[in-house]
Design brief:
The chain is an alpha/beta fold. It contains 22 helices and 20 strands.
């Protein structure tokens, strides 16, 4: 007789259901696992054997065969330990067979029977709920998985607790969803002295999820401004938190016992590889663009990234998703993020300062920013020159607007967009609008339309650039709580499209 349990195999953020079958047959004692397991799954038999011995359960003197079905789906990871142990315990009639068939289990076993946390509990709970099953997982993963209310989540500390629960001796209470407290704001925009235009650009970018690039001399405050962007972003909605947390769960970055509503802020180093930024590796793991989903990807020293890394950003920035293709996997990850880049105007960094600039001015600026291709630069909605701050400005007290005040305006603009795109899964902010929807919401009045057409002709805007100006103008109108896009909104949007330093 074959006993059954269930687990999952991960394909991107999707958790595919796997049936764990256990057969005890007469013959020479042995323990084999079939069904395309990798090395970590094959080693599960030793961990399971040791865990049973620690519980004083004699390993059967029979031929034990574990089949992971479907057999053509690659099985990777140590989370198959627990479902294998559960199916074996059911085959030994230690726990009821009918109960194990209705549970999706995942967890790694230590040699003393403790259940070690694993990645992917949240996607596993989604699959369990879709199939009408419960979820059995390690105790630290319970708060994360319990966010899926349609699945009954049992979080156990040890294999012994699992046996006592399923046998009815000591039932385990269902896990409750946990939420990580919001991080306290330690960086405020009021600390940035001067740079009013850059602060305005940050506010517009935050309100409409627009991509932004800062260009300025070293020490002008580009990184300081970008690091204060999370303080003006609204918290994620429940759906956004769930989407983002599924990616972080797969990557093993949910380690605080629950889900956070804080928007991700990722700032990889400029030496990062393509696999680190876009995703990849042997198991096609998500990269920084996906880990920044619904948040911010800050790329400092933007021209210093490898050229192939920069060029691979084009499609994720435009479409909001990325396909990671490897020999053994083709995985699609969502990556709807806000790209904030910072760059010096040239290699020496002092293109605009005659006293400090190198001898190759202005050619050094053209060569340096030329590392950013035209098509990639065209995808930035806002381009901002960040001039150096004078010593007299640094000596002044910090009297700028607090981040909380700016965040209130951003939240109000986001609320308008949420109402505007209610019922549309493909659009959440103005940056997502395209086609007829963009024409409907962002077509300016007669004066604004005339200005936009003249600017497009005068500055030879591409079709993409033309539409991005419309989106930014719509966001500026939302910040002004204006129903129509008017000429001043269009004029400000155009001014951020035509920064002189980025056109050098």
């Amino acid at each position: 007789m074959v006993s059954l349990a269930h687990s999952v195999a991960f394909r991107g953020v999707e958790a595919c259901l796997v049936e764990v079958q256990c057969s005890l047959a007469p013959g020479l004692p042995g323990f084999s696992i079939v069904g395309l397991p990798d090395k970590a799954v094959s080693e599960a038999k030793e961990r399971v054997r040791a865990a049973l011995a620690c519980m004083a359960i004699a390993f059967p003197s029979k031929k034990v065969t574990i089949n992971l079905s479907p057999a053509d789906l690659p099985k990777e990871g140590s989370h198959f330990d627990l479902p294998i142990a559960v199916s074996l315990l059911a085959a030994l009639d230690i726990i009821p067979r009918d109960i194990t068939q209705s549970v999706v289990a995942l967890g790694e076993l230590s040699l003393d029977g403790k259940i070690v946390p694993v990645t992917g509990a949240l996607p596993a709970a989604m699959t369990a709920a879709a199939e009408g099953y419960g979820l059995l997982c390690p105790e630290p993963c319970g708060k994360e998985a319990a966010w899926v209310s349609d699945a009954r989540v049992i979080a156990a500390k040890t294999l012994g607790d699992v046996v006592r629960h399923f046998s009815g001796q000591v039932p385990i209470s269902p896990a409750q969803p946990g939420e990580v407290p919001a991080s306290p704001l330690t960086r405020d925009l009021s600390e940035v002295k001067g740079q009013e235009r850059a602060k305005r650009a940050l506010e517009i970018a935050a309100a409409g999820r627009h991509h932004l690039i800062f260009v300025g001399t070293p020490g002008s405050g580009k990184s300081m401004l970008a690091q204060r962007l999370p303080g003006i972003l609204p918290p994620m909605t429940a759906m956004e938190a769930l989407e983002t947390s599924m990616i972080h769960s797969i990557a093993g970055e949910l380690d605080e016992g629950g889900i956070s509503r804080d928007r991700p802020f990722r700032d990889p180093h400029h030496t990062s590889s393509m696999a680190a930024i876009i995703g990849g590796g042997r198991m096609a793991k998500p990269g920084e663009v996906s880990l920044a989903h619904n948040g911010v990807l800050f790329m400092d020293e933007f021209p210093e990234y490898q050229r192939n890394v920069l060029e691979t950003l084009r499609q994720p920035v435009e479409t909001g998703e990325v396909m990671v293709s490897r020999a053994n996997a083709h995985v699609r990850y969502p990556c709807r993020f806000m790209l904030v880049a910072a760059a010096n105007p040239c290699k020496c960094g002092y293109l605009s300062d005659p006293e400090r600039a190198c001898a190759r001015v202005p050619y050094c600026g053209a060569d340096y920013l030329g590392r950013i291709s035209g098509p990639l630069m065209d995808r930035f909605d806002l381009r901002v020159d960040v001039p150096p701050v004078t010593y007299t400005d640094l000596d002044l007290p910090a009297n700028g607007e607090k981040s909380a005040m700016i965040a209130a305006r951003v939240a109000a603009a986001r609320a308008v967009q949420q109402q505007r795109f209610d019922g549309r899964s493909d659009m959440r902010t103005n940056a997502d609008a395209e086609g007829e929807a963009l024409e409907e919401i962002a077509t300016p009045d007669a004066e604004g339309r005339d200005l936009l057409l003249r600017a497009a002709e005068r500055f030879n805007l591409s079709a993409r650039g033309y539409h991005r100006v419309m989106r930014v103008a719509r966001t500026i109108a939302d910040l002004d709580q204006s129903e129509r896009v008017q000429r001043p909104h269009v004029a400000e949007a155009i001014s951020f499209r035509l920064a002189s330093a980025t056109d050098a």
